[in-house]
Write a structure and sequence with these properties.
Layout: H1 17-21, E1 26-33, E2 36-41, E3 46-53, H2 60-74, E4 78-80, E5 85-90, H3 96-105, E6 121-122, H4 125-128, H5 137-151, E7 162-165, E8 179-184, H6 196-199, H7 202-207, E9 214-217, E10 222-225, H8 235-239, E11 252-257, E12 272-279, H9 286-302, H10 309-316, H11 318-325, H12 340-344
The protein binds protoporphyrin IX containing FE (HEM) (2 copies) and iron/sulfur cluster (2 copies).
């Protein structure tokens, strides 16, 4: 029978032969130097991985060049990681140095492994999405330019993972990164009463609000938003495009720290708010760059070997974190959301009843 829904092709068809052959039978890996990994299989087979950072939004010319380099050294085998890094995979140890030399000569940053700051994973930003409170690629470029040295070396106490999400939907899983740059809105949506009745379904729009801030207005066949209740999450805008939320003056960036996905030594952690608001300041985002760099540098000095940012803060205490970094503690840091007792006491592993 003809197949009508075949789905994506099986990823196993695209694995490099050495990975297919040793599938599930890898013994260990080591990081030989920044940007160079060696995986050894039980059979003794070896796989070398050279990791370089990408500019995240790539031109087709640039992708072609990356593919040509992979054809030349790696029989075409390369992969893009979820942090926008590019990994060249090769089995011939003797070609590794030449590959790295060519990459460096073409200004590819080789690194992003181990105790480094690897590329920043980011969401879509002003380029693509409809709800961003900030740009994505712009602040990330500015921050990574400043932290470049931490990409090509492995001199930090542990991994530092930075993520950016341009609104609270947090596509980029910023809640579990050592440092999170998160776009925030600070003003209520502005209903366009001439469009709401035509493009939106009133009951679904009302139901979309987590705080019950929206009520119908039968007179205008539109809706009214209660400013006191609204928390600027933008959920209603996703449902009803006639409730735009973007505000050129008041949208901006917040900084969160201490999250991690890893289970090693301590439970995974969620990031916590440390800077409630920084202005959107393109094209070089000086306030955001300075804030992130300050946190990284204090952690680099204070953290113990293998201690992730959240573990360091847990050890020294949040009071000390704020004192050491010089970040001001304000009323905005206090979570007064109705469900705060639940969110306070929740980790990915454990929850108080
Ligand atoms: C068995 C489960 C998982 C596997 C095998 C896995 C594997 C990976 C790999 C290979 C990367 C790329 C690293 C790089 O590009 O340098 C990555 C990145 C990432 N993963 Fe996972 N992952 C898993 C589960 C999760 C879960 C449950 C979450 C979130 C709740 C998550 C969030 C992330 C994030 C945010 C990144 C980018 C940050 C980073 O590189 O540290 N992952 N993951
Ligand atoms: C409105 C909600 C969301 C949208 C529209 C969305 C969309 C996307 C898109 C388009 C990507 C890029 C995929 C690619 O590179 O091909 C992505 C990546 C990612 N998303 Fe989401 N996502 C959403 C919610 C979430 C949530 C809630 C989480 C985590 C709890 C999450 C975790 C991630 C991670 C870790 C990545 C990076 C992995 C990668 O680049 O391959 N997303 N998302
Ligand atoms: S984080 Fe928000 S604004 Fe940014 S791409 Fe995701 S949904 Fe869109
Ligand atoms: S922005 Fe969020 S809290 Fe405010 S009205 Fe819309 S859904 Fe409700």
């Amino acid at each position: 029978m003809a197949k009508t829904d075949i789905g994506p092709p099986n990823y196993k068809n695209f694995l490099p032969p050495v990975i297919q052959k040793n599938y599930g039978k890898w013994k260990h890996h080591e990081i030989l130097k920044p940007g160079l990994l060696k995986h050894v299989a039980e059979s003794g087979d070896e796989l070398y991985t050279v990791r370089v950072g990408s500019g995240r939004l790539l031109s087709t010319d640039h992708i072609r060049e990356i593919c040509e380099i992979a054809d030349k050294y790696c029989d075409g085998y390369l992969r893009f990681t979820s942090r926008h890094n590019v990994e060249f995979l090769l089995t011939d140890k003797n070609r590794v140095d030449a590959l790295i030399a060519e990459l460096k000569s073409k200004n590819y940053p080789v690194g992003g492994t181990g105790h480094s700051i690897t590329n920043i994973v980011h969401t879509q930003g002003w380029v693509h999405c409809h709800t961003p409170a900030t740009d994505a690629s712009g602040p990330v470029k500015a921050v990574m330019d400043e932290l470049y040295d931490y990409f090509v070396t492995m001199k930090l106490p542990a991994h530092v993972r930075i993520a950016l999400a341009c609104c609270l939907n947090m596509c980029g899983a910023v809640h579990c990164s050592d440092i999170a740059i998160l776009g925030i809105h600070r003003t209520v949506p502005k209903p366009d009463h001439s469009r709401v009745p035509n493009v939106c379904e009133i009951p679904t729009t009302i139901a979309s609000c987590p705080t019950g801030a929206i009520r119908p207005d039968p007179k205008t066949k539109s809706v009214v938003i209660n400013e006191e209740k609204c928390m600027y999450c933008g959920n209603c805008y996703t449902v009803c495009p006639a409730l735009p939320l973007a505000d050129a003056e008041n949208d901006g960036i917040s900084i969160w720290v201490g999250g991690k996905v890893s289970n090693a030594r301590s439970a995974p952690m969620f990031s916590k708010l440390v800077i409630p608001y920084l202005p959107n300041n393109p094209p070089r985002w000086p306030e955001t760059v300075a804030a992130v760099k300050n946190i990284v540098e204090i952690y680099a000095k204070q953290g113990r070997k293998h201690e992730r940012m959240g573990e360091w803060i847990d050890r020294v205490g949040w009071e000390r974190f704020f004192r050491l970094t010089g970040i001001e503690f304000t009323d905005k840091h206090i979570d007064d959301f109705t469900l705060a007792p639940n969110t306070f006491r929740t980790t990915t592993q454990f929850k108080w009843g």
